Amino acid sequence: MAISLDRQTVSIYAGAALLRLLVFVAFPDLSDFLGSQVEISTPISSFKRLQEGLFLYQHGLSPYDGGVYHQAPLLLVIFEILPSALVFVALDILNAVSLHTIANNLDIPSRRFRKLDGTLIAAAYLFNPFTILSCLGKSTSIFTNTAIIQAVFNAQSGNPLRAMFSLAIGTYLSMYPGLLLPPTLLMILKNKDQPASLASLVMSYIGALAALLSTTIILTDGFWDFLSSCYGAQLTVTDLTPNVGLWWYFFIEIFDSFRDFFIGVFWLHLVGYVGGLTFRLQSQPLFVITSLLGLFAIFKPYPSIADVSLYLGFLPMYSHILPLTRYTFIAASVLLYSTLLGPAFYHLWIYAGSGNANFFYAITLVWSLGLTILVGDTLFAVLRDEWEIERPEMKGKSVRQI
Amino acid sequence: MAPPRITTNGLNLPLPTRLINISRLRSYLLRLPLFTRLILLAIVAFWVLDLQTVWSVIQWGSLTPKEVGFGSMYRLNTFPLIHMGFWHMLLDTACLIPLLERFEAEWGTLNSLALFMGPLGQIPAALYLLVDGVILRDNTPVLGASIWVFLLLASEAIKTYKVHPFIEIAGYNIPTWISPLALLVVTSVLIPNTSFLGHLCGCVTGYLWGLGYIRFLAPPEKVLRWIEGKFNLLGRLPHYVSVDQQTYGRYGVLPSSSTTSPGEHASPIGLGWVGGGILSIRRTAASKRALTWASGNSISRLRKDDPRLLRIPPYLSALCILGGIIWILLLPLNEYSRQTYISENALLPGQVHTYFGGSEQNVFRAYRHELATVSGSTLSPGGNETSSIEEERAWADKRNAKIQELFRNAGLKTARQRYSYTSSGQTFEGENVYAVLHAPRGDGTEAIVLLAPLKNIDDALNVNGVPLLISLARYFKRWSLWSKDIIFLVTPDSFAGPQAWIDAYHSTHDPRAVEDLSLKSGALQAAVCIDYPFEHRFETLHIAYDGVNGALPNLDLFNTAVTIASGQMGIGTSIQFQHTYTDRDSQSAYPSRLQILVRGMASQALGQATGPHSSFMTYHIDAITLTAIGQGWQDEMAFGRTVESICRSLNNLLEKLHQSFFFYLLMQSNRFVSIGTYLPSAMIIAAAYTFMAIYLWVLSGYRLKEKTAVTVDGTAEQEAKEKDRAADKQTPTSIEQVPKVEFISIDRNLILPIALLAGIHLASLIPLYLLTSLTLKVMPSTFFLLALFSIVLPIVLASALPEMPNNTTLPAFAAPTNEQYVLIKSLSLLLLGLFLTVLATLNFSLSMFLGIACVPLAFVDRMPGKKRLAVLQYLLLLIFSPMGLAAGLGVYEYFVSGQNHVLVAWLQRLAFGWNVWSSWGVPVGVLCIWLPAWIVGATLVASSWFSGVNNTTSQSPAAAQGRRGVVKHSI
Fold first, then answer.
1. Model pTM?
2. Is the CB of residue B615 less than 8 Å from the CB of residue B502?
């Protein structure tokens, strides 16, 4: 991770770290407040629940007793040793540095592409309000985010084994990064400098995952408890605490007899994007990963703004397609509106009592719509860009499907 | 048969542009031929005509067998055009339009007119009359275009039958002509109230027509052709379909290539980032002419890349603001407001006998006398400051001990609670006393609060209220019917005491300032506050209902109080201090209603407590304050009975009040408007800003250039000219000239605008912090400094912005270009619209008032070169600014009430609200929403004075010229 340390870079990193630490120290209540917001912490990423698990763990009980804690046991070890605020700030900085390096080394075969300034990418990640809020709210999604960013970073810089190991960590922590395996493999295999065989990569991924899972047996007694409350909770969506996603309301409303079927449908829908996008955009595996992250932020079981911050961390690397997008203003406005209206409607529902659950759910739909517009629009722009490379004479002209 | 698909650019691309092709639907509707349009128009017109209730179109025009005589033969023609209602009409037209369009395309407009007004319209009607009226001797009226639908379906089915006689399903050959009959059966089974007979008549006529037996009824083609030629119908009527299809083609013109022009993707109204390439309006103008000749439709002439469209949004947004204000002004009318009613049946207001009276009056007097003995200090002015405070505390202690003793004598558990708040350097302290009556028939999980403050919100001594509360406590204790605990609370004041108590009740208090409660009961269901600040008899009850932050109690509680007071007790009620400005007789007049409405909104917008009940609303406990006012003949026992009856109603509740409205505006004690009726006004005002933001965003992406001189791009120009010439050959030359403008798209540079806006919005937290945390001594000076600073800041910013090129350390922050100024304004208005929308969901009235106060911000703009106009704009902005508001308020109060420190008193109240009630509405609304938007707007205006040499050198003259053109539009 060699990045040049000029004044600008240092000031951005130092500023971001100071900002976070300052808020942690000066407004300790704010962190608790943010940690209890449903947009920031979900059942699988809440720091409060982690503390509950930690308490049980430190007193020699299984952290999964009581059914509150749904996260991986390795996190308990980390927070047993290290102060939480520092961990979150450090991970944010680490993510930014990795994104910085990825952007510096990125080369996209497009005529519009200009060499990126990694510092700006890092700044866009660090000063993104969603990133700041999820860091201050101590959402443990950041560990998964770090794992994914590390996987991409290592895949790009030619460390296939490390990439596989990072992806395995991500999968171990929250499962869905496993879906990023195909584009990551593609990215590694496209990288000609480091020849690697597909079989060995997959084997190393499975091996790493198995090793991580086996640590559970050392850390806690109940391996099956762990499986059912960590992965089972994500697979079958047992905890229906409201969040910004689409699952909770649907599975509150669904009749029990259809529940299993629709859980299958929802997961199939999520998985369905992987193959198609990887195949269609095989020349740009990084964009496949970016788009998938955007889709996961909409369609995964317990999404939060931390997932969006990850997507928005990668997206600025494609700023060259900005002129080709068509609805960015609309998407940005919709996201802005739903960002502010979401907490307002949640307040009306839970505290003021003058609204109801439909208020908040409607806003989560709008939020998902905004993200969908963004993902769809950037996909369109990248495809258009590809097409213009094929047919340079059509650059800037209007096309229409007939 | 189907109209030709219009495809222009021969590219076949696998890029999906849209999932549902709205433009195709639109073009289909725009290309409907003339007769179909007329029929559609007639059907809709009849439907609209039928909306009134005076004269029934249906009775006038339906085909009723008994009604048809020689004088009413018109019914044979009118009945297919009239429908029972909207859905009937929609369904019928949706079925009819495609069929009729095909028919007209085949037969021509004149033929269709003659046929449908003649034989094809009348034969089915005559058949129906014959069968229904003569043979069956029935008198069922029929209506609607469905008879034509079946007619046309039948004739189409015959046509199909001639080509494909059978369809084979599972080995059976089914003749295709049977399909309309099948449909007929299905319709009459599935859809209620369909006339099987009427449809059958249509079908039969359709078969006859399709088989050619009644073709002879069609007017001879020669005549039609003569008419068409003589009157030049083809040239005069738009969308006319010629009789003679061989010569002119089906529509009289060749299909033009105008629906998809090459520039569509890059049109200026598209909201994306469009880069690269030059788009010329002329290119589309050429193809447009071909269309305009055929259509003649003025709306279709306004295509989406027409520069005239760019002039609409400012007017649209002005219209929105105007509409929002007019909407509010309409609300007091009877048509838009509603009579209040009780939704929750369990309340049963006024259904019980009340027994508070008789000897209770003696008890009440005794209590009043006892309390008078311990309230000495408040009546006698003390000597010096410190001793009087000491004395005051001693008296308060004595008084509380006495109240506690009285409660205990009545057999209730009591407790006390101390509190001490600090705001603006002043201390507000006191001690609450309360008693809990445990419900004889309840489990203590629910409770009602009765509250009487020692001093009411106007700082008057509640001389009768407190004794009344205690005698009610004694009286209630003897009843065994309570199913909810009743808490009797006496607070020393009306603003801090209730807040301290309710906070501590829910354990959300700061233990350093407020003591814990030692005695608690169940979840609070409702609270009623008693305020009777004099000893004589009263006339009416004033009901205060608005809470902190504009929260309102459930309308059912308010209605219960009004129903009981006026219905059961015969005591008049008033709201929003209406007794001070209207007389009793004119209460239901429009001006009085409007005044109460606006006062209610103002009180809601301020979000301050209007009585001791206000603090309860924060915890979603419905609460009201009853205040005795006026000199009349109602005594304290009547007040007591009212409270007793309200308590009995609340005692009936099975669940928390939820049935009725939580969002409403009252304009009389028995009239209200609900959220569905009033919310749109605030929303459209907020939308006005968003419109402007989108409009400016679009503008900021283009340089608009008028093509007067020969310009840059030679080849594009050449190309356009050639196309023009080609088009000119086909089209008459009398078409008006479309203004020739060119949009050059440019990339938007967002870093500076976003940074500037973020900076200004974050900086607005500084005055918020200062004004809510400073002490009273430094408050005036700080406030005036801040106000002065805010007035000067825009000018400083405006002068600093063009000097930015000197800032070499951060290359992103160069001097803003003209487009960036537009962007700054766009984003600022976007944020304003966004905040106002969010605010409208939380505190409607505040959002409404802020929206109106911000109106000038949407319409002022920088105007380089017109410095005097800019000065005028700046002055206008100064008037409509938070500072202007404060100054106006100060001057008004100074001249009206002669007080000197009005502003400071206001600031102190707001700070108190912020610190104690957490009433954030006005501070946040004014300082964090209005002020930043104002500073941005004022900076833009001020920058007109500083757009000196520096700026113009960096701009191409063409662009500068283009800007001026745009500026003209946006003002």
1. 0.72
2. yes
